[in-house]
Amino acid sequence: MRTVLMVIACLTCAGSALAVDWEITEIPVSDEYSKDNFYNFDIDDYGHLYWVHQFQNCDANGGNCTPSTHTLYRYDWATDSVSTIAQLPQGIYISMSNNYTYSSGTNIAWRQYDGSAYDIFFYDGDEVTQVTNTPGISEQIIGVSGDSVYYKYAIVVSYPYDVSYRLFHAVKYETVGGPLDCNTVRSFGYTLDSDLSSDCYVNFKDFAVFAQEWLECNDPNDPNCTHPWE
User: Fold this and answer.
1) Residue 220 lies in a domain
2) Domain limits at 191?
3) What does pTM read for this prediction?
4) Are residues 85 and 191 in the same domain?
5) Which residue of 70, 161, 181, 227 is most buried, as measured by CB atoms within 10 A?
């Protein structure tokens, strides 16, 4: 019985080969410039690819090039589409090496160089916001977690240390724009528990509302209370 099984196994393997194939998809990035460079990439937790594409328009001989234009792209593998996250003016650079850029989910941060210092920018999957704007100081990203960005920068200090680092934690928050009134504030859920008159103040008006029902009750198990449902 053991010999028969060995023969069957050999017959099964004879002439068979493991076939491996790849499905190749070209990422649709248009490029009409005569000189370009892909570099500085990162991948988030959902497999989206971020990269910086440097464009330079040059003549037919590769000379007389215009200043570089840096664009940060995001590739969505699920829809096989590319979206532009940030397109910078000529001469402004994006730094996205692994030392500076980390991502979590659809959130990603990067450093942007304007010729004097690096500032931090943040993308939450919907819009780009600037986190820092400190002339002459170059911040360096430590990590990104949700809507939080952790970063540091170095300052020169006196002996015995030459450099000292400052650590920071920046959290994105939403602000409400436009004219506000009491009803709008309440509709956002910013209510005061003791504001019984619903006028955004806690004062004697609320005490009057409270006093009007002093010692009243609607306990269904107490026959002495008011039962408006009956």
Assistant:
1) no
2) 182-212
3) 0.54
4) no
5) 70
